[in-house]
Specification:
The chain is mainly beta. The protein has a single domain, classed as AttH-like domain (AttH-like fold). Helix content is about 0%, strand content about 55%. It contains no helices and 24 strands. The strands form two sheets. Strands 1, 2, 3, 4, 5, 6, 7, 8, 9, 10, 11, 12, 13 and 22 form a 14-stranded antiparallel sheet that branches. The protein is globular.
Amino acid sequence: MLTKGDDYPIHQTPEPIAYAGSDRNFYDRYFFNAYAPDGSAFVAVAYGVYPALSVADAHIAVVKDGKESCLHASRILGYERMDLSVGPIAIDILEPLQRLKVTVTKTDGIAGEIVFEGRAFPIEEPRFVKRNGPRLFMDYTRLTQNVRVSGWVEVDGQRLDLSGWVGTRDRSWGIRPVGAPDSQATPGAGIAGFFWQWTPLNFEDRSVYFHINADPDGKPWNTRAVILPDGAGPHGGFETEAATMATDLIPGTRHARGGVLTIPMDQGEATVTIEPMATFLMRGIGYGGDWRHGALKGELAVAREDLDCANFDTSDMGNLHIQAISKATLREPGRPEQVGVGVFEQLILGPYRPLGL
């Protein structure tokens, strides 16, 4: 089965691009977010294909004044993976690894044209490989890039000019749970638990990235921090796997009230103080809920969803995965203090002993 992708030098197996291997959980995804410099408004977009499930889906969410307005779209993928559109939501690659555009044709009151332009060459995060006992649970690669943003987004006639906004985009591909969950448990998988924090942060002339996946006892199985000046090329920044995050949870919840990231450097410690200002519920772009990634909705389905992201049940499983739009203060040895903005993404499932969970 030949498709447009077969005319590009992007094959990873002896098969045509249409075939992604034997794992039903293979996926290929785009993620974007953008936020006003003062954190007063936020936009997120997700687009994914799931070749073995023959599903493609796309989502956009706009957060303002405690309200999260979402548009979901899903379609049958078929074999053609170079068509980057699902219903009203489309992606154009204007310049690979540098400029991408998201277009939302007005549907149910939501529309937009957003261009994301990289501040430096994307970073490639360490490969994520995790087994639950004998079973491969995750195996994927992700690139991440902080961006400057232009364009506009509109909700119910109110248009936001995105000039001067910043944000983050990423691309990930590989294996992780998608579509309908597996109904059969895996013997020998050990204690179920998942701890995840991700903090891509934008400052005036540089970006700071940190992520950690850890076991229930707090032992990291994938972590790294990067400080990357604007305009840097591949391998142009500082990176370490020794950074730590001190997290202060909101009492009775699994969400952080704040955090202090400590990054050891040759010239001393850099610190970033993170202060959440507003919450984005990740289910608004398909991370859980009825419109979870890879869910089969038929030939084409499009729907709007409105969420209250200021007052919500913090114990609801569908609300555990969030991004907190946050003020960030960077103190780096030998440099003036910088105040920036970013997100503090959090997902804690099951026990996590370092935080008393």
